[in-house]
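Hi X.,

You mentioned you wanted examples for the new student's onboarding notes, showing what a folding record looks like when two proteins sit in one file. Here is a clean example. The first protein comes first, with its sequence line followed by its structure tokens.
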Amino acid sequence: MITLILIGSLVFTALMTPAQADDCAEKACISVYTENNQIIIEAKRGNTTTKKAIAQAPKKSTVKPTPKPTVRPLFFPPVPAKVVVTKPYVKRTYKPRVKKSTTSVNLSDRLTKLVPTAGVAYQPEFEPLVKTDVYFWCDLPSIFQSRVDIIGEIVDVTLRPSFTWSFGDGAVYTTTENGAPYPNGTIRHSYARPGSYVVTLLTTWNGSYTHNAQVRAVTGTVKKISVAVITVVQGPTHFTPSKGK
């Protein structure tokens, strides 16, 4: 029965390692999320202890004095005398106390990353005609990457945009392409009637981050809105003379 209890205690002690008790004891905890349409990178390394010891004072020697023996003459009769018992003098020595101070240091930092806002362009630039394709595009890259060094840890953030175009006449178009001018552009729209239209582009950023070769998703998305006004005009009127006149 004693043997079984001892083995069970050893197994329980082996399972409760310090690394399992606190995962952040040796590694940094990294968190990447969105807040107020910004990328927030937080890092924390906790339970880092520093010990400071006061130097010990040199030990003093403690030597007990040896009592001197009483010398009596050989040819005289012994004279009774008062016996005095001399106790050796003992000097007390105190060891200096060694003070060890353990300070818990929490290293943390918080960085903010801004993602770019799109600029809207279209072609033809001046008064497009009704029932004619207008090419739209934006100046954003297809991928946004950023590397940050936070409390000694390297974090790579990768974001990709998606686009939702509202052309102002009720038509909506969603794509992952940023568009291009004529003739390579894939984002085209034509208006049935002349007038001024407010074109709205909603850009949604989402992606992932990499830390210590581990890839994790960024919590949340970043949304940016860009606006442009386009004026569409009626095409010129051509008069065709009727036959017979």
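Then the second protein repeats the pattern, sequence line and then tokens:
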Amino acid sequence: MKQYRNLLCLAVAALSVSAFGQSAPTAPPNTGWITTAAFGFTLAKGNTDNMLLTGNLLSSKKWGQNEMDLGIDGTYGETDGVRSAGNIHGFDQYNRLLTERLFALLRVDAVNDAVANVDYRVTIAPGMGYYFIKNTNTFLRGEVGPGFVFEKVGGVTDDYVVLRLAERFETKLNERAKLWQSLEFLPAVEEFSSYVINAEIGIDTSITTKLSLRTFVQDTYDSTPAPGLKRNDVKLVAAIAYKF
């Protein structure tokens, strides 16, 4: 693992040099953050008692040749008094535009999922990306690079290297509605049959200039889950979002 850490240090150093090296900005600087908080709640009483809480906080910033996305989301649920969902996920992604469409990136993800018996899973992933579509209302980008995973699943601590392949699509359907979709594939380099897939698709519809209704589906597939647990976890979430 020592050689992996050395490679990671070199990747971070290279990205830092790119981020802070001298080059002319391609657009006027924008120093403002765009932040959105969303909260969803479902309660059912009767033959089955269900309760589900969801929440997330997303923030993004673009300035010069730089892009930053930060986020944290969590879910807690009970069925007949027994916990049926309980996870928290955070991420940070920094993109440095090298041309109008090509960029270098560094992404960090951290996950805890009590129901799936994931005490922690941290992924550090430098890489390269490209905007296949990039205009005012729509973008489609792809990303590729190595990932360094540190985890404790089912009481077993492990670390390994993965290949990260990802894409994200967003489009503004009209003045009130936005659609997005993302897919991430993380196979282990030493054993491609061991992998994690993260997928999401959703739509955000404005109610006012600040409030919107957000509905989305999240799917996480782990080919080697903790013993006794299912490989696939799917969530359908409807939430009210507030833009700061």
